[in-house]
Protein 1
Amino acid sequence: MGSLEVEKTAIGWAARDPSGVLSPYTYTLRNTGPDDVQVKILYCGLCHSDLHQVKNDLGMSNYPMVPGHEVVGEVVEVGPEVTKFKVGDIVGVGLLVGCCKTCRPCKQDIEQYCAKKIWNCNDVYTDGKPTQGGFANFMVVEQKFVVKIPEGMAPEQAAPLLCAGVTVYSPLNHFGFNQSGLRGGILGLGGVGHMGVKIAKAMGHHVTVISSSDKKRQEALDHLGADDYLVSSDNEKMQEAADSLDYIIDTVPVNHPLEPYLSLLKVDGKLILMGVINTPLQFVSPMVMLGRKSITGSFIGSMKETEEVLHFCKEKGVTSQIEMVKMDYINTAMERLEKNDVRYRFVVDVAGSKLDQ
């Protein structure tokens, strides 16, 4: 470990253009400040939003870009003002690495809604240094945006909880759906959706998976523990299920109709949007008016909720279903993720990939 004032070299895999193809990339980390920790990255999950970023789907990408925001690693250096962590701690870093700390969301501990939040990649720190993500061997992060992984939790299992897990936990917690006895729907059974089933079941909910085809029925019911399974094109079954759900967590990341799912909600039910979609969604107003239903959204979770979901999953024995890969497989993993060919989250064994060799 060097001086805190000395910039250090990191080796990652970066996209250079909207093709999204990643290849080795060497860069300097920002200076480690007094309130920062340096993390040696062990594992990093692959999220669908990483695809959006590297392919410039939202028109805001800057290259070269090292993606990856479900980061688990070991603290190897701490600044003199760091109080929450020590060298050797196993920690997690999610999508955010900065915020203004003075706005209303920041003061309410919901810094994910800060207008000046700083993303862990494809962004710029206040000192002008580009942020780079977790598909690399090291990163430097302010201690506020680092969480400790509970003892006894496998670090590779913790990675998807830092985005997929907290993304589901946050709205259930915020909207009061964290009590037992509710009936919920999970629309889409990918990385976020499979965590939705597991977390909702751990909260004591009756969970229905809603999908466009029948091919994931057995996985949903037998492996993930869902109580029911609906194929959205089966009009008869959809009509039978009308007005039966307290909420639906909509994880679908592509344009899709909302009206079939609004019909499944009870009075005062909520359709909670989580997929990043860059085209307008449509519905007719009576679909919400005639049941006082809500279409709302939720974005990841706060640092407080990230800590909560880790401890919740540890206490309830909730684990994510992962497929472990090495970094040299990352482009194939990206292609498979785009085809929804993963059950249910890729996690890159970063340390085992030996990026510095």
Protein 2
Amino acid sequence: MFPLKTQTLPHVSYRPKPFVSSSSAATNKLSFHHNVSLTVSLSVGSPPQTVTMVLDTGSELSWLHCKKTTNFNSVFNPLTSSSYSKIPCGSPVCRTRTRDLNIPASCDPGKLCHVAVSYADLTSIEGTLSTETISIASTKRPGFIFGCMDTGFSSNSDEDSKTTGLMGMNRGSLSFVTQMGFHKFSYCISGFDSSGVLLLGDTSISWLKPLKYTPLIHRTDPLPYFDRVAYTVQLEGIRVGRKLLNLPKSAFVPDHTGAGQTMVDSGTQFTFLLGPVYTALKNEFIQQTRGVLRVLNDPNFVFQGAMDLCYLVESTRPSMPVLPTVSLMFSGAEMSVSGQRLLYRVPGMVRGRDSVHCFTFGNSDLLGIEAFVIGHHHQQNVWMEFDLVRSRVGFAEVRCDQASQKLGLKP
């Protein structure tokens, strides 16, 4: 989930001491489920409590709901854990500037480190910065820093009520992968059911196709609209069918403020493009599907506030027509979006005998964000590898439901 677009704070050098599992060759395998978000279960506390967290490569600080309310079905109870500890606002951790922790530190009335996080979808959450023991498969990490949250507002309360919190997976000093000491992780999202697999650590999988890699983009200079701890790659062009969109390369390059970076974000469902690029893609897709799809001409309907290209499809139609593939072209790699991943059926939206399906690319400008965001819907049936040592992201097409079975994980 991309952060609320405020001034990006400089990345800091503070790094919690990584804890590596007793077997350095071990890979921690976790299954997860997905719908609007990717959710994974793990154990927190002593004795361990099972929590369900949203897997989010676009966020840094992990957090859990710690206060029982009628809105949340799953919470973490710190009162029953002997390993739980609150962080005072005078702690060096609280005084470390990151994207999620502002300077000066915010103290609550009990002089504890208060933390508040906001996201671009208007979700906000706040509570106390704390430490706890995290357990995943063969790895246990005491002293893990997270937010124990007790108040907040959600723009999608139905979905948020199904999870206990969020697992921040970006490259920041407080992220899950940094604190746990994992230098590589991979995930695979099934497009055939709601299953997925997350691998933490090095992987050597003989049956996987060779991955195509694109380098991560690093910026050392502080820019107001550039997230320096995101998984930023370079989008170089977009092809619809065989036609390359007629756009200059400068349309995909961040400007002098850092606006216009391309982030790979598992916490965002769909893909969002800056206005001029989105408009070019939208017009070309309409042109190539003319006579095949019926456009919903309703200016008052914009799905999720940013997706204004929608279609009417007969509810009794057995299958979608053949659609042109949209290829996202990165430096050294491509991600192809085809078939059902191009259109999303809007739940509960019916016009006569027709259901409404929307194009799964949206306009970043309508959301008020200054970035390209590659969401998890377009990562379905793609093996996604995040290599922090070699500073790159790898792609390979694969049937993710079959990959989970081969790895011994059940949906």
Protein 3
Amino acid sequence: MATQAKSPSLCYSHKLQCFLHNPVPASLSLVGNGKAHKKAPKFSCRSNGNDDYYIDAPVEVGDGFSFSGGKYSDGPSPSDEWFKQGKIVKAYAAFGSGEKAKDPIFGLAMGADSQASTDIFRWFCVESGSADNPSVILIHGFPSQAYSYRKVLPMLSKDYHAIAFDWLGFGFSDKPQPKYGFDYTLNEFVSSLESFINEVAVNKVTLVVQGYFAPVAVKYASSHQEKIDNIILLNPPLTARHANLPSTLSIFSNFLLGEIFSQDPLRASDKALTSCGPYKMKEDDAMVYRNPYLTSGASGFALNAISRAMKKDLKKYVEEMRTTLSDENWKIPTTVCWGKRDRWLSYDGVEEFCKDSKHKLIEIPMAGHHVQEDRGEELGEVIKGVIRRTRLNL
């Protein structure tokens, strides 16, 4: 059974003491109960006078925190079981200064979990099926993890080599701090995706990509059409109205408030996953998504950085994606799979775009923005059907 941390901290390190002006009552449990404070608390921080403090506590200390409730377990976790199913792949060279990363707020040295590889970045991925079969690469959205495809992977294992991975900055992959080898620009995500695909798949692949990372995958595919069998877009931002982040995500890009809320596991994981559709998370699943934010400040700083990059460049990338998918030189069989209960992206204009650009549209009425979470098994059947039809038309 998951256990509550002995002494929940309100900062990133057990050696850095942050005090709320309106402290949480001692009797309030830090279990994820959904009882969020209506107002963001004011806070101040001060060190304990030591010079060797770190912004990340050891995992066993459980140094995560949440303004709206949360819990950390130093016992067995569903996240541990998921990690055992995967492996680490090294891809995309790190071109940082070689210095140890420091947090962007206080300039404190960060712990080992926040330090990226000094040569090649480490990506966490889970594979299913034989490597001799055609490859299907499952790309999670923003913000999420490879874990979101846990129901899809076994559906593809018989006939395909399915690979779900964590983007840099998410899940179990490296979480380099901006200016220490990776700045989370959309251009860097395109380049890093190329390196990762080259590492895990020799032959042609099918790409399945969800949400706000769809423009990144399309930009990569536009320069590597010979490498792609199919591309399946799950609730991508297709229209001009889609080019603005919803408030649930854009808040992470705000000055100071973004740094605070990106460290809150219930805002960064639970709310981001459940506010965009009908998805209701089980506690075991929620703990997998919260784990990176509960055990290290690195995940929050990465979330803050990618939110700012998305807010800056998403409009340009969405327009580029629309142009690319409408161009007569685009030869990749393309399917848009749309969960119609998406609360972030409107369905208005999606049907017209697919019709005009001659791309297949598949509607999933009971799914929201995170299609793979709401209807994982159904999505698995859709993916198999799309690949099967493409091969029959060859």
Protein 4
Amino acid sequence: MRRQINELSMKLQLAGQGKDETLYKPGPFGTVKALRTNPTVMPDESVNPRLAKILEEVAVKKELIVALANSNVREMLEVWFTNIKRVGIPNFLVVALDDNIESFCKSKGVPVYRRDPDEGIDNIAKTGGNHAVSGLKFRVLREFLQLGYSILLSDIDIIFLRNPFDHLYRDSDVESMSDGHNNMTAYGFNDVFDEPSMGWARYAHTMRIWVYNSGFFYIRPTIPSIELLDRVAYRLSHEKAWDQAVFNEELFFPSHPGYEGLHASRRTMDIYLFMNSKVLFKTVRKDAQLKKLKPVIVHLNYHPDKLDRMKAVIEFYVNGKQDALQRFPDGSE
């Protein structure tokens, strides 16, 4: 019902755009609340009829997990989809970036989509490393949104332990996991910058938040979401930049002279449910109470020995081996 109310309110708001009259009358103090959720786009199957047919078969309630993969990450990909199957998540899809991965997925009964040839993308897709392939997803995902589907984009260095669709709010254009390692860094804090030479005005208050992780986020099919993908894809094709940095700059930088900021809503995921590997190895594994919590996913984003740690996460959370995480250092030393 809440979703229906939001949709009807948005339609009223859109209907009133461009008119001089006031559409809403504010209520009493403390009761005023702005609209949170942008309306979804009208699906356009003509964009990619073949993909539309695949999504109709795979998606559940117009939602699915999507991962991009080439042959460089085949072993990790198998760990990735094996755990998705173990949890019982039916709505996931691998976007194969080369023929070998397409054949591999088909042989394992994994839903797979091989894009039509595109010279501008295929050279990177077949030979690129993690960062290069990661940047492709912003171009590839656009068609999914145009077809009207909400996508939970996932890197393949992630272990699924519960169904993530049971833990989403779906009230924002982008709902992302954080690289933050505690409540302060993940959800924002007032950081005071000290400049003694300024005397009385030496203390400047700054607002800070650690970046969203561009390897695991839920994105709804809205106009701001598609604009985000377009902006990031354009910059990555014209700049030598890290996709995660660009992703965050476009989401967070405000409008200012010479720049129009993106008007997209965003939500930070719970860091103990959607857990990065810094949280796991620096905090959770050393805390008796936090070790009892079963996260939704663990993303091995902070460590280079990804496959080894992925297997250890499975041993700990799935097989109950209590010392499975102990042999690893906190970081990558």
